[in-house]
What does this fold into?
Amino acid sequence: MSLEFDLIVFSHLRWNFVWQRPQHLLSRFSQQRRVYFIEEPTRGEGPTRWEVSEPSPNVFICHPVTPADGHGFHLEQMETLDELIRQLLVEHKISCYAVWFYTPMAFPLLANLRPQAIIYDCMDELSAFLHAPPELLQHEADLLKRADVVFTGGPSLFRAKQHRHPHVYCFPSSIETAHFGRAKALLPEPPEQASIPHPRFGFFGVIDERFDVELLNATATARPDWQFVMVGPVVKIDPARLPQLPNVHYLGMKKYAELPPLLSGWDVCLLPFARNEATRFISPTKTLEYMAAEKPIVSTSITDVAEPYGDIVYLADTPEQFLHVCDVALNSTQTERTARTAKIRDVLSETSWDKTVEEMTALIHDVILNHEPVALRLNLGGGTGTQTPLNSTSASRSNSAVSSHSTATLTGKRSDEPSEQSISSDSETLQSPVVVIGAGPTGLSAAYHLGTDAILVEQNDRVGGWCRSIEQDGFTFDFAGHIMFSNDPYVHDMYQTLLGENVHWQNREAWIFSKNVYTRYPFQGALYGLPPEVIKECIMGAIESRFGTAKAPERNGSTPKATELKGLVCSHKQDGKVNGKSKGRVEDCCGDGVLESTAKLGNPRHAGESDGHAESRNGSSLGSSEPANFEEFIYKVWGRGIAKHFAIPYNRKLWAVPLTEMETSWLGGRVPLPDLEEMIDGALSPVGRPMGPNARFGYPLKGGFQAMMDGFLPLLKGPLKLRTRVVGFSPKRHQVTLSDGSVVNYEHLVSTMPLPVLIRLAGDEAPQEVQEAAFALRYISVRCVHLGIGRENLTEKHWIYYPEDTIFHRIFVQGNASPGCNPPGGFGLTCEITYHSHYKPLPYEGDDLISQCIDDCRKVGIIRPDDPVWTKTQVDMPHAYVIYDHARARNVSLIRRWLSQHDVILAGRYSEWEYYNSDHAFLAGKKAAEAVGSAAVNPSTAVSYPETRGSVAK
It folds into this structure.
C-alpha cells in the first residue's frame, strides 16, 4: 500500500468559518499531501457544480452547488454528490486517497469510494447539538463499523466511543503557542475594543446553544462596572436572546489573526458554557489558547475543562458562584498567578498541533501498512445484522487489532478491546424472487403480504418512510401529521394487527384561523364568527356559482361572464366528476389529506381522462362548463367569497405552484359543499362537533405513528436491509445494486421510491421519452418544525389551517394526538411549511426558520409570549405532495407502460405519483403483492397494476 495519498474530507463546518480543529489539522496535513475539504452543499441556480478554491497550497475547498432542497448532507443530495465526487476524482486525478469524516451525515457517500483508509475525527457529539438530524446516530453507527481508525476531540468523547470501535485514540484540542503567546504582551488593540473600559472579561468562539446566556446576563447585571467582550458569530440561537446590557459588547466574528490583540486587552478569560447535552462532551480549543496568553480563566465545570485543568482554571456553575470566582480571578495575588502560570507552561510544553498531526499520521500509516483497511475488505454499511443473507457466500472473521503505537499516551490513547465484525465480499450477489424498495407503509405492506419471497430495502435506519416518528426531550413528533381513519374493514383489521391495544380513539377537532377568529373545518360549512361582510360574500358567491349572476368576480386580471360560473353543482347529496375521473363525495376545500380516507378515490390509470359528464341538479349536462384547472374549480364549486377568503389563499400557500397549472382529478373524496340551507345555518349559529364516520380518528397511544410502522417488524418473513440505498437499477438485467456493495437479481421489483428517482437510477436503459416524462413530474416539499412547549393543554384542537400570513399553512397539534406524545408539563406542536425551489423557496433556514415559526405561533395566539420552548427541531421531506399538473397523467402512464415490460410494479404515493393517505398505502402494498402473485401464476402476461384507488379490498 502506498503512503502517497490524498485526503478527501467531509465536514459539516465551513472552512472560512471559525478557525478551529479541522483547519489546524488539515492545513498541516496539506504540507505532505493534497487535502480536498468537501463542505455541505447549498442550493443554487444553474447547473450542478463545484466551487473550488485553494486558500493555501494543497488545500482545496470544494463547495457543491446543487438544485436540491435537502439541507446539508441530506439524502436528497446524495445522488448529485455521488456524481460530483466522481467528477472531482477524474478532474484532479485523485486515484490514491484516504477519506476523513467530521460528520457522519456524509457516510452514504462512502458507498462509491474505495479509499486506502477511513478516518473518523469525532471532534464533537453532534447528535446532542440543536437541530441534529434524527438519522445522525445511525449514520455514526455505520461509520464506526467502516472506519479504520477513530480520533476523538477530548477525554469525554474517548470514554463514550472507546467501546464502540477497536481503534479509538484520544487527541484533545491542541495549541499554536507562538500565535496566542503574543497576547502575553500588551498589543495594539483594535478600535472597537480600545474604547471599552477595564476590567474586561472576554470570550471568543461560537455563540450558540452551548453558551449560557442566563449566566452571562446574571453576571453582567450584578456587576455593571465590569465589561464583557463577546467575540464570535451567533448561530442556532436568536440574537435577541442575548443580554442587551450597556456593559456587554458583541464584536462579531473575527479572523484568527485578530484574536491575540483582542485577548491581550482582557483581564479575565471566560468559558461560560451551559451544562446541557450539547456541552457534555465538548473539549474547548480556546482553553489552551487562553492559557497561552497566561490570563486568568473562569469556566463552568465542563468535564474536559474541569478534569485536566481544574488546578489552573477557576470553576463555578451557578450565577452566584460564577460571580464570586470572577472576582477572585480578577483580584488574584501575584503569587497565585505565578503558581498557575507555571502549571500552564507545563501543559503547553507537552502539546502542539504539529505533534498531534505527527501522531495521527503515524496511526494512519500503521493502518495502511500493517493490516488490510476495512474499506478494501467489506462494505459493512447495510442490513440489520439479524436477517439471513439470500444465497450469501459471506464469511466471518476477526478484525485484526492495530499494534500499539509508541506515542499512544493521553494524546493518542487507544482502546485495545477486541471486536468481531462480519465480513463478506464486495461483489456479493444475492437472488430474490422480489425486491421491495422502501419500507414506508406501502413497502411494509407489500413485504408483509409477500412473505419469504421478498427482500425489503430501506435507506433510513428505521422503517416507516414519512410515517416515522422522532423522540426528543420527552416529546414524540411524527415527521408530519398522520391519523388513523379508513372506511375499509381490511385496513381496520390491519390497525388491530399492528397496534393491538396501543391505540387512542377520539373525535376530531379541525379548525381554521382567519380574520383573527377560529371557525370549524370545513370552512364553507361553518362561517359563524367571521365578519358579517365575509359571511355575506361567501353565501352570495355560493349562490352565484350555482345559479349565475350579473356580478362576476375579478380574478387573474379578468372578469368571467356570469354564464361561465353557472352549471357546476356540487351538492353534498350528489356524486360528480371534476376534470378527470374522481368518484365519491367532495370532502373539503383544502385537499391536503388530513381527513384520511374519506371516500373511494379515482382509478389512477385513468386520472385526467373523461368517462362522461356529471349532471347538474336540474339534470342538464355540465359539459363544457367543467373547470379547466384547480383555480377555476374553486370559483365554480364554492364561489367567489369562499375562494377569496379561504380556498384560494390557503391552496396557493399549500401547493406553492400556480393553481391554474393543476388539474383536479386528485380531489376525488376531499371537497364537500353543504347545501345552501346548511351553509346559512352554519353562518347563523355555531356548528357543533362533527358527527358521523368521518368525525372519529385513531392514533397510537404510545410511540407515535412509528409504533404502527414498527408493528410490521415481527410480521415480516423476508430479509430487511436498513440503512441501505439503491444506487443502481437495471430493468433489463432485473438487477439492483445496493449501497452496501451487494447486487440483487430479482424476478419482480416493487418500487415505492419517488418515480423520478427510480428512472434516474435506470440511466441510459430508460428510453429518452421515459427520462423526459420522469423529469417533468413535479412535486412540492415540506419542512416540519416541531416545537415542544413548556405548558400543558395549549388547545383542544387537533389541527388548524392558516390561510393568511403565517409561514406555516397548518399546525398539527401533536400534543393532542395522544397523551403519550408529551412529557409532564409539556405540549407538542408541528408547524408544516411547503416549499418549491422555483415558485416558493423557503424564506428562512435553520434557526431562523424555527424562530419565525415561534413568532408566528405567538402572533396567532396558539402559544403565549411567556411560554417556554423546551425543545425545537425540524425535519425535511423533499418529496411530499405530488403535483397534479395537466401533463401528469400522460407522463405517469408512459413511464408505467415501459416499466411493466420489465416486471416492475409501482406502488404507493411516490411511485404511482398519486395522492394517497396512509390507509391507501396499506392497500397499495397489498395490491402490489397480489400483482406479483398473479404474474407468478401466469408469467407470460405483463405485470398488471392494482386498482388501489378505485376498488379497495373488503
Summary: The chain has 28 helices and 36 strands. The longest helix spans residues 918-937. The two ends are 63 Å apart (CA to CA).
